[in-house]
Amino acid sequence: MRWSRIVVALMAVLCLATGTFVDDGKDAYLRGDYKEALGDWQALASQNNARAEFGLGLLYEHGYGVTQSYETAAAWYQKAAEQGDFGAQDNLGLLYLLGRGVSQNDATAAMWFSKSADQGISDAELNLGCLYLWGRGVNQDDAQAVIWFRKAAQQGYARAQNNLGAMYEYGRGTAQDYAQAIFWFRKAAAQGDAASENSIGYMLEVGLGIPRDMDEAVAWYRKAAEHGDPSAKLNLQRLFPVKRA
Known about the structure:
By secondary structure, the chain is mainly alpha-helical. Helices cover about 70% and strands about 0% of the residues. It contains 14 helices and no strands. The N terminus is likely disordered.
């Protein structure tokens, strides 16, 4: 039951890489002047500048200064991705995974995530790890999921640290090791990751790899609930049921 809730949390971590932009257009984008950024990037994209093509994809994906269009975003990401742009590869993979602007295709999503992950991009490493965990677009392989989660976790990515902790907690793709689970959950929790805060609370409540401490468990559940974790809210309701008249 707890693992099924963690998988849902993993789905939420598929995120959009922003990367770094070429100087022309970057400053305008950062200050919210999307029209100027659009003009700058259009001029550069006409010269096949991959970073500008990525920037245009980002504008169209989110509707910044343009009419929102996943189809147009995908077209620009494709141009940049084919030139090796890591952010475009990751974002294009996500569009294929979700079927936004392109026909949904897990295998194509995995291919683009892999290209970006091979360049050391933590977003893509995390996304690829999720695909191996689910067996979507690749053969299901917990050990490969652990490898990619670890790569992203070692770069300080909180969501990957949480996921790696979960793999250790359940012994999936690696030997079960509660101490390692706690280690990675604490790394992620230090960055405010609500799912990890909830997991620490659970391990304190049950006494997994750490001395049982209900007061500390409740404190972690409350912290996670304040950060919006639904499982933590349920745990608090379980421990402190509301008495109805």
